C-alpha cells in the first residue's frame, strides 16, 4: 500500500500543467548538471542534426543520454571530449528562442553554439562555403509606413533600412507611375531585458555581436576539409570557411533575387536564414557566450524558377557546417 502511494505521488508530481518542472524532473536535471558545465548546441532541423547523430565524435551519456521537456528532446553526451547538450529547435525564431531559453534555464551551460544551413546573399561566396558572422540582426521587425507619411511616428526608429517598394516597380506601358501603395519599411531594433538589468527597463539593439573569444578562435578554422560534391554533382571550387561581418534572420524563406540584393547592399549580409538572431538575442539577454556557424546551401533567389539549389546541396551544406562545428569545439577549453 505504501509502495502504491509512492507511485501515485511520483506520477502526480511528474505530470504538471503550464510548463512547470516537476520534482522528479528537477532531480534528473540536478543529476545532469552535477556533471557540467556543458556547451549548448542548438540545431534547427533534423537534416542539420543528422551529421551530428551519425558522427562517431558524438558519444551519448551512458546514464542519461537525453532529457525530454516541453516538447524538446535534449541530448546529453560528449563531442570532441567536451560535454554537450544538444537540442533541435525547429523552424523559425519562436522555436529557436524558446529552445535556447529552456536550454539556459534548465541546464548548467557555459556557452551556446548554433549551426546549420542558410541562404546566401553575398555574390563573392558560393554554395558549400561555411560562414561565421561577427554580428546578427533580426530583419523581420518592421514599421510599415502608410502612404504619404512623412515622419515615423511614435516609438519607432529610422536608423535601419529602409526598403522602399517603389524602387522595385516593374514599370510597363500600362503602368508608368513610380508610386507604390505598399510605400516603405523601416527595420526596427529588438528590445531586450538583460538578466542582470533593471526589470522592465528595455535595451534596444539591432546588431547582436557574437562572443569575442569565440570569434577569435574561429579564425583558426580556415583549413577544415569540406565536402564539394553530392554524388556526381560537384561545386565549381572547393568550399571555404570564412568569417564575415553580418548575418540576418527573419521568419521568411528568402527565395527572391531583388530582396537578396537589398539585404546585401543595405546590410552587408551574407547568410540569410530563420533562427540565429533569436538564439543570439536570448544569449545576449542571458549573458552567455554565443557563436553561429552557417553553411551556404543556395544563392537566395538564384538559379531557375523551377528549382532551388537547396534541394541538391542541403545535405552537403549541413555536413560542412557540422565539420566546422567539430573543429571549433576541439579548439575550446572547457
From TrEMBL:
- UniProt KW keywords: Signal
Query: Where on the tree of life does the source sit, at the highest rank?
Result: Eukaryota
InterPro entries attached here?
Answer: Nucleoside_phosphorylase_d, Nucleoside_phosphorylase_sf
- Which stretch is the leader sequence? 1-19
* Gene Ontology terms for molecular function: catalytic activity
**GO-annotated biological processes:** nucleoside metabolic process
> This chain belongs to which protein, by name?
Bark storage protein A
Amino acid at each position: 500500500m505504501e509502495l502504491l502511494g509512492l507511485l501515485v505521488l511520483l506520477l502526480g508530481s511528474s505530470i504538471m500543467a503550464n510548463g512547470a518542472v516537476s520534482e522528479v524532473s528537477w532531480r534528473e536535471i540536478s543529476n545532469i548538471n552535477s556533471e557540467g558545465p556543458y556547451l549548448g548546441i542548438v540545431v534547427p532541423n533534423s537534416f542539420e542534426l543528422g551529421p551530428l547523430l551519425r558522427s562517431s565524435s558524438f558519444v551519448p551519456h551512458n546514464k542519461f543520454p537525453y532529457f525530454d521537456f516541453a516538447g524538446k528532446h535534449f541530448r546529453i553526451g560528449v563531442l570532441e571530449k567536451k560535454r554537450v547538450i544538444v537540442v533541435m529547435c525547429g523552424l523559425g525564431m519562436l522555436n529557436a528562442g524558446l529552445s535556447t531559453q529552456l536550454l539556459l534555464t534548465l541546464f548548467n551551460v557555459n556557452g551556446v553554439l548554433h549551426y546549420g544551413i542558410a541562404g546566401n546573399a553575398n555574390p563573392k561566396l558560393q554554395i558549400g562555403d561555411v560562414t561565421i558572422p561577427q554580428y546578427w540582426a533580426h530583419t523581420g521587425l518592421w514599421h510599415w509606413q502608410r502612404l504619404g507619411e512623412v515622419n515615423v511616428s511614435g516609438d519607432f526608429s529610422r536608423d535601419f533600412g529602409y526598403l522602399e517598394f517603389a524602387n522595385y516597380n516593374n514599370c510597363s506601358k500600362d503602368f508608368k507611375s513610380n508610386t507604390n501603395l505598399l510605400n516603405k519599411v523601416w527595420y526596427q531594433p529588438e528590445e531586450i531585458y538583460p538578466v542582470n538589468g533593471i526589470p522592465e527597463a528595455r535595451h534596444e539593439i539591432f546588431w547582436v555581436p557574437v562572443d569575442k573569444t569565440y570569434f577569435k578562435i574561429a579564425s583558426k578554422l580556415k583549413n577544415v576539409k569540406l565536402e564539394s560534391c553530392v554524388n556526381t554533382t560537384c561545386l565549381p571550387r572547393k568550399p571555404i570557411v570564412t568569417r564575415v561581418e553580418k548575418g540576418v534572420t527573419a521568419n521568411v524563406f528568402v527565395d527572391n533575387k531583388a530582396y537578396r540584393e537589398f539585404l546585401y547592399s543595405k546590410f552587408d549580409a551574407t547568410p540569410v536564414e530563420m533562427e540565429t538572431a533569436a538564439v543570439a538575442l536570448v544569449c545576449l539577454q542571458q549573458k552567455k557566450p554565443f557563436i553561429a556557424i552557417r553553411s551556404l546551401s543556395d544563392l537566395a533567389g538564384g538559379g531557375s524558377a523551377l528549382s532551388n539549389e537547396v534541394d541538391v546541396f542541403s545535405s552537403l551544406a549541413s555536413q560542412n557546417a557540422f565539420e566546422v562545428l567539430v573543429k571549433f569545439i576541439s579548439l575550446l577549453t572547457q
